[in-house]
Model the fold of this input.
Amino acid sequence: MEHSAIMRGLTLEQKCALLSGKDSFCTRDFPGQGIASIRLSDGPNGLRKQTGKSDHLGINPSTQATCFPTAVTVANSWNPELAREIGEAMGKEAAAQSVDVLLAPGLNIKRNPLCGRNFEYFSEDPYLSGKMAAGYIRGIQSTGVAACPKHFAVNNQETRRMASDSIVDERTLREIYLTGFEIAVKEGQPKSVMSSYNLVNGEYANENKYLLTDILRKEWGFEGAVVTDWGGSNDHTAGVKCGSTLEMPAAGNDSVRELLCAVKNGEITPEEIDRRVEELLALVLEKKDQNQREDLFTAHHELACRAAAEGIVLLKNEEGILPLKRERKAAVIGRFAKEPRYQGAGSSAVNSARLDTVLERLPHSPVNCIGYAPGWGKNKKENERYRAEAVKLAKEADVVLLFLGLEPWEESEGLDRRHMKISEVQTELLRSVQESNPNIVVLLHAGCAVETPWEKYCKGLIYAALGGQGGARAELDVLTGTVNPSGKLAESWPVCYEDVPSGGHFAGKGKYVEYREGPYVGYRYYHTAKVPVAYPFGYGLSYTSFNCSAPAVLVNPENPAQGSVSVSVTNTGKRAGNEIVQLYISKKDPVVFRPEQELKGFAKVFLQPGESQRVTISLDDKTFRYWEKKTGRFEIEGGSYEVRIGLSSEDIRCSCMVRIEGTTAAADEKAPDCYRTGQVKNVSDQDFETLLGRKLPAARPQIDKNLTFGELKYARSPIGWLVCFVMTLMLQISLKRRKAGLNLLFVYNMPLRAVAKMTGGAVSMGMIDGLVMELKGFWIIGLVRFVLEFFRNQLTNRKLEKKIAGER
Done:
């Protein structure tokens, strides 16, 4: 049935009803009008379709699916084609489970290493993030399932994530936090996009016309549906008016009433509602009956293993300790060899169809293992006993394979990390073992950068990241040389957290999150400000060696987007292997302040020993551009640029110069010195306001519907104080027990109004307004209003349900 015919058959009530969910993961259906319900499901590294009662964070069980490596691991492969393969596999499993929209990939920028959800995101660099995301999107949608990249936009922390306000200047917004989405949308052509929870410069992302309409739809040409993050709708009418299509999960009929009243009052037009309904219908009418029942898991497990191996990064290989020699006796130490760290916690958690462990895979590998010791336990007494066992075992071995990393509860949706360290019990274990055997290879499991002052105690260091269900096999393949490691870090690893430019303005107290560092994120800061790092962006070792030479640039100075850069790459070692050639652009004597260099292209090449190949990297419209706030568009500053070819951001092998015609004569911006030099660790209010072009908002707690449960201590109500005290106590106990209470974390950072958006209509916004009155100190009036709104909600729900069903 054509859209127009369906639209004519719908009442206004039905149209409004379609714009919010039916339950946790499904949209409303009107079979009589030819409108089926479609199902949306997480997640970024594998399907998470829940069985029975659904919930947002994956607490309840889900169907089995392949758990692929998380985004942090796949990004380290620098291979968009691998991302496409994984996306296609996830799409096939989604289709087989009758899932129509896969809520993936996640591509928020890794602004700060403590973000609890960094394992779900690709990189600190928008170009790499966008290219990897586009690969996933193409793969997912090749199966008939819609992809839904997330979270749009500037959503870079978990603390107060549903009500924080990201204060960011326009240039940084466009160059850093939107460019990845721009690439993903233009190249991947997703059928849906998920808006983020947070505000951006004072407006919620889901009701931000500038983001959803002006940029996403008009500038980038997006024609699909915008879906809220779960419970992320603040003002449903404003969202629909500004370009948000579908409110999830189920807000009941309260949202329907809100839209109907808005039409009646002239706040929104029927035509604006029609546009959103048509966007949703485009998704619904593409729904296909999937009858695929073939065994997907076997082939997909092989893909998961290959992806994990390609994403492993060799950080250190002192004295050629790797690959392991067959005759060397190896002691395997560390709990993660038996209980693998292979994914993060939260809505992305997959019920793995299969899970390899190192101990189970050892008999199938060339490793000559003489024994296993867990290394640490659950309390001090166990730690001492297990450490003694580990030291004894290490003395009997030629080499020690030590499996370390972050604990599962340390990386989770809803919770930012408190520091960049691995646990003290693990570092003490490493030092103790090193005293008895210096030949140690550490296999590190974490979804983000960690401090590594302890690396001096090991000769080999492998970053396994979070390798999914096949990670253990991949690790053994790299250890033994069955696979030659080729992964490169997709994020910088600072020496310590104090070196991170956003450290002073991350996950702090209050509503506002100030992006004072501007465009100096990750390597853009470390290179420009000349701050040493432990391991640079793009870094990774191999069991062979490579060199680059003879770069050549072919570019039209008047249209540089049509150009290309070629370079000769040679495998100078004795093993076949992959190398990732990285293209960086550096402006000479810039008028407009900018990072010292920026990634603008990359290519992965496989070479046999002694083989050379000419590698070509295309330039595009993003290669030389910068955002000019005076013209309100991207411009190119004319002049000389250095084209750098490197094997990491710090390992530049060759370069050449090119002169480019500018689109405008760039005027001196009179930017503060801190932004010209990149010294942005301590930006003053005045300098940040100069960058913003406006005054900073006043940071005052407000008692309103966006007060989070964790902020009820600011209320003028004993009830609010008690709720906050109990929740804070429960959270502290949970963290002390080293368990991430996901539902508790979610609620703690959840604003009051989200209750009305996630209870299926049981709680209305009117009831929340009554609750806010009570919290402001109007105890009796607030509670009376709450009760009255409860009965009003019940009565109007029944009447409206009949109208939605077509009854009069």
Notes: The two ends are 25 Å apart (CA to CA).
